Amino acid sequence: MVCKHTQTRQKHFKPNTVLLTKYLIEGQTVSWLAKHYRLHANTIRNKIVKELSVPPSKNLTQLPKGKIWIATDATHFKSWGCLYITKVTGMSHPIAISFCRRECLETALNHLKPLSNLSVDGYTTDGRKGLVMAHKQVFPSSAHQRCLIHIQMRVATLLTQHPKLKAGRDLLYLSSQLNRVSDYVSAEIWLLAFQDWSEMYQDVLKKRTYQKDGGWWYTHRNLRYAWKHILNATDNLFVFLDYQNSMYHNNHLEGTFGQRKPALFKHRGLSRTKIAAALIWTFHLLQNTKKNP
Description:
The protein is an alpha/beta fold.
């Protein structure tokens, strides 16, 4: 008796991690890979597209248990999109990465929601509104620490390394001392010094330049922006002192971004979806490489 049903055997696809490692980690080009494997360049391209169409079989890393402190940052790949990375203090590999079109509240929420079950003491961010609001929604009872390195960099950008005004030089010096704070006493000393600076230079901060038509602007706008930047972050400057597992900066994420951008730029012909897959595969391959040197 014939059942008159046919079935096609499905082949199990096993990713070629060696090819992906050479392409994504070592940064080899399609031309080089074609010569290395003695294949046509189009064959290599088709293989890579096929590999990137299948996500890694495992998560980046096992989610931690117990109380943790996380740091999240985002970087932009020109017109390609935005990459979010979240790490935990004491762990070298990220626990979450996301690639999206742009940095905003919605994309930040999508990145953080898979981590909502974690027990998070606090988080460190660069202070961008969308990222901070997303953390507050996902981890409403957690503390927020502003990245002190980002504050220093922003102040230095606004004031330059050699401000003309004494007020600018004093504020630049104050900001440079932020990452030297290591206990409650030094934190109190720094906050008092900042308060004294604010009172001393109020006249400079309020000075205005007027136009003939009645319009005006603050004469020392960059100095005022730098002061406001620190002032608005005051409540979140030294939160890390209250937690043993905290971190006062997320600067280590900049190194992670810096490693990926040059390698990815070599493959800038990839589509947006393939770039996202390439980034996810990159971190997956790096983790396995360090586990199995």
